[in-house]
Amino acid sequence: MALTPLPRVLFEPLVRAALLEDLGRAGDLTTDAIVPADATATMVLAARQPGVIAGLNVAALAFELIDPRTEITIIHSDGSGVSAGDIIASVRGPARALLTAERTALNLLCHLSGISTQTAAVVEVVRGHKAKIVCTRKTTPGLRALEKYAVRAGGGANHRFGLDDAVLIKDNHIAISGDIRTAIERARAAAGHMVKIEVEVDTLEQVDIALAASVDAVLLDNMSVEQLTQAVAMVGGRAITEASGRVTAQTAPAIAATGVDLISVGWITHSAPILDIGLDCP
């Protein structure tokens, strides 16, 4: 499935804020002092390690916002795999703009490409099973749309984007409401007809209760592979099954083999290391 680019309106405020944070009150003192105002340059974005690219349009905007005369030529688009040494894109324009926007552009591009790279690694190890790798709401404040886009660039899928697009009844909701059935009944009474309801369960008994209440999805939290296998059999296609809890690239294949529909992985957004990318003079 083709990767749909993010609309600029979703990330332009984030890029502007990042540039303002870096420019401060006086702008780029170093570059403005050293580089002539009329100097132009061509530089390349180069991968220094293998991975999957995400965020080129975001990086390009950082350069453009400093000076609209900058031009970027993309060689490896978002979602593409690269090897160490590959030229991802070239950037041409006023030299001051390239140097001033460099860190903001790289911060975002390296971070998002790190997420897509780690996502792709987990997607690869479950290939051949029906399970989709999905992210969570464990995202960097302010960067959720970009980070979830990076997950898609890596071949993963998105869980809910926020508290307002689905009902997910978790353990604390159940504890405060008294029991699973009560929590589900209250949610169903309040939710609109387009809103799906998922409930987090950690025992097979709770799976039975959730199914009896006709939930749309069950979040099988921190279950063993044996429990997951039993839970999938119990559900029998009556609801979406999602496994979560301390999933790694090493444990994901066995989890996928249980037949779950989704495997949610928080660390692909909250702890993914950056992909090392540099802006170099060729």
UniProtKB/TrEMBL annotation:
<dbReference type="InterPro" id="IPR036068">
    <property type="entry name" value="Nicotinate_pribotase-like_C"/>
</dbReference>
<dbReference type="Pfam" id="PF02749">
    <property type="entry name" value="QRPTase_N"/>
</dbReference>
<feature type="domain" description="Quinolinate phosphoribosyl transferase C-terminal">
    <location>
        <begin position="115"/>
        <end position="280"/>
    </location>
</feature>
<comment type="pathway">
    <text>Cofactor biosynthesis; NAD(+) biosynthesis; nicotinate D-ribonucleotide from quinolinate: step 1/1.</text>
</comment>
<dbReference type="InterPro" id="IPR013785">
    <property type="entry name" value="Aldolase_TIM"/>
</dbReference>
<dbReference type="InterPro" id="IPR002638">
    <property type="entry name" value="Quinolinate_PRibosylTrfase_C"/>
</dbReference>
<dbReference type="GO" id="GO:0004514">
    <property type="term" value="F:nicotinate-nucleotide diphosphorylase (carboxylating) activity"/>
</dbReference>
<comment type="function">
    <text>Involved in the catabolism of quinolinic acid (QA).</text>
</comment>
<protein>
    <recommendedName>
        <fullName>nicotinate-nucleotide diphosphorylase (carboxylating)</fullName>
        <ecNumber>2.4.2.19</ecNumber>
    </recommendedName>
</protein>
<dbReference type="InterPro" id="IPR022412">
    <property type="entry name" value="Quinolinate_PRibosylTrfase_N"/>
</dbReference>
<dbReference type="InterPro" id="IPR037128">
    <property type="entry name" value="Quinolinate_PRibosylTase_N_sf"/>
</dbReference>
<keyword id="KW-0662">Pyridine nucleotide biosynthesis</keyword>
<comment type="similarity">
    <text>Belongs to the NadC/ModD family.</text>
</comment>
<feature type="domain" description="Quinolinate phosphoribosyl transferase N-terminal">
    <location>
        <begin position="28"/>
        <end position="113"/>
    </location>
</feature>
<keyword id="KW-0328">Glycosyltransferase</keyword>
<dbReference type="InterPro" id="IPR004393">
    <property type="entry name" value="NadC"/>
</dbReference>
<dbReference type="Pfam" id="PF01729">
    <property type="entry name" value="QRPTase_C"/>
</dbReference>
<dbReference type="InterPro" id="IPR027277">
    <property type="entry name" value="NadC/ModD"/>
</dbReference>
<keyword id="KW-0808">Transferase</keyword>
